[in-house]
């Protein structure tokens, strides 16, 4: 899952990015509101962690513009502004959640999971298809009740496919979900991970839709 982090404090931003990467998020990090606006125009994200007191453009104006364009991206405001008036303004502007600094990184991760889950139209954290179950909180994957060990990239790819199991996912969409800026991707990277998942979950678990991409087998 690819997340946009908007934070101008270098030390704090570096810590948040490291913590989210450990939770298997691909994280793009920008330091000001204008860079955030451009990133949100040009890239697809599963969620955004947004500070309010930013250089060049305030986070609240970034949020308002995003909502005016009709973009429903889950937004979690993360800020030192802790008054009731600030919280009301942020939520009324379209934020989905509001967390004040200082904060607990595990709580931030849990709130992101909840936002992404609700955006996907489900209240349960467990993703399931054809006997395969993925628990985002524990990062545990099972097939017919048996644990399936996955690498971080395999896990991220499976999470993406399970989160969009009614849709075909193109190679470029999967790459966008798996990799942050600056992370190199090989010409057949997605195909390699698809092959590895098929070996672990069954050859027909993931279907190739010629010329379009991949989807979970819908005949089960």
Automatic annotation (TrEMBL):
CDD domains assigned to the protein according to its UniProt record, in alphabetical order: REC_OmpR_PmrA-like (cd17624), trans_reg_C (cd00383)
Principal location: cytoplasm
Gene Ontology terms describing biological process: regulation of DNA-templated transcription
Any one Gene Ontology cellular component term annotated for this protein: cytosol
MF terms (GO), sorted A to Z: phosphorelay response regulator activity; transcription cis-regulatory region binding
Residues recorded with modification 4-aspartylphosphate: 51
Record-annotated Response regulatory domain positions: 2-116
Statement: the UniProt record of this protein carries the keyword Translocase: no
Protein location: Cytoplasm
Residue ranges of domain OmpR/PhoB-type in the record: 124-218
Assigned keywords, A-Z: Cytoplasm, DNA-binding, Phosphoprotein, Transcription, Transcription regulation, Two-component regulatory system
DNA-binding region(s) in UniProt: 124-218
Protein name, per record: Transcriptional regulatory protein QseB
């Amino acid at each position: 899952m690819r997340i946009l982090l908007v934070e101008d404090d270098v030390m704090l931003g570096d810590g948040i990015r490291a913590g989210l990467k450990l939770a298997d998020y691909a994280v793009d990090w920008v330091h000001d509101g204008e860079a955030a606006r451009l990133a949100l125009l040009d890239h697809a994200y599963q969620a955004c962690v947004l500070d309010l007191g930013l250089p060049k453009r305030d986070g609240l104006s970034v949020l308002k513009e995003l909502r005016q364009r009709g973009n429903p991206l889950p937004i979690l405001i993360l800020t030192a502004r802790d008054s009731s008036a600030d919280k009301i303004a942020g939520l009324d502007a379209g934020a989905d959640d509001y967390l004040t600094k200082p904060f607990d990184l595990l709580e931030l991760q849990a709130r992101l999971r909840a936002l992404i889950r609700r955006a996907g139209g489900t209240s349960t954290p467990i993703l399931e298809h054809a006997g395969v179950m993925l628990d985002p909180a524990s990062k545990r994957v099972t097939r017919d009740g048996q644990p399936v060990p996955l690498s971080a990239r395999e896990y991220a790819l499976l999470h993406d496919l399970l989160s969009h199991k009614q849709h075909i996912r193109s190679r470029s969409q999967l790459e966008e979900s798996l990799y942050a800026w600056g992370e190199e991707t090989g010409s057949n990277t997605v195909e390699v991970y698809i092959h590895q998942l098929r070996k672990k979950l069954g050859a027909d678990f993931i279907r190739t839709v010629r010329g379009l991409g991949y989807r979970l087998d819908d005949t089960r």
